[in-house]
Amino acid sequence: MQIIENTTEFHIEEKTAIAIGKFDGIHRGHKEIFKCLQEAKKEGLKTAVFTFDPSPAAFFSGGNIKELTTKIEKQILFEQMGIDYLVEYPFDKETAGIDPTAYVTEVLLHKMNGACIVAGYDVSFGKGGKGNRKLLEQLSVELGFTLQIIDKLKYEDREISSTYVREEVTKGNMEKVQELLGEAFFVSGVVENGKKLGRRLGMPTTNLYPEEDKLLPPNGVYCSKVKVNSACYNGVTNIGSRPTVEDGNRISVETYLMDFDEEIYGEVIQVELLHFLRPEQRFDDVEQLKRAVMQNIEEAKRYFG
Description:
10 helices, 32% helix
């Protein structure tokens, strides 16, 4: 996958089918858009994703927006989907003022060589978000590109959206989040060297620190699956500041992997959060902590069957 970033000056030579959107938390509705791209690929088009960096919401809020899927995580997911081009178009005061029609003609059709555009039913783009589905329909007739508008999917009588997913993540309803996403919610990052307390307690753990803009579920203990290279392991993950053994408030994602005892410092791992077990607690001493963790491991084993 070719990533085009930090520039507005580029040109893709090959004809493309383009998905446009924010794609924060690539949920089941988004996946319908990407299915259309794969169909277009069978017809000989290259697949492309157009999104802004930073997102308009992050730009206008001064960067105080937590994302379901970080920039790096999106890149990983798009790569896995077989996307050919990812355009992370710079979003600033100038690009925020692009006329909606110019946005389509100059960026999507000219710079990205778009022959097909795929978008959600509630798509908005261009200055003031005034570009919408109706404008795309009008321009597709006038300019001759193919347009596919994807209807909203519903879950429990509510339209699936990033807002819906975000609400459930903040409640810790990880099973429901998985239903909305069509896959488990995950946190990725590089395994860092820690104090090795888990190893001294006979329960070695991996530790990573999420990016600051990553939205996380409530602090606590979760049943998890961890992808390490091409393998996947059951685990128990604590999200929080580890109040029993740490004085600071830096949030970590610390995981005990079952049937695993290898050194993976420096490796990029993906921690899928499947089921909430209990809130994070402060214990009087590490022995109490150890007993609680052992109990959590037994609960996780029952969860995994």
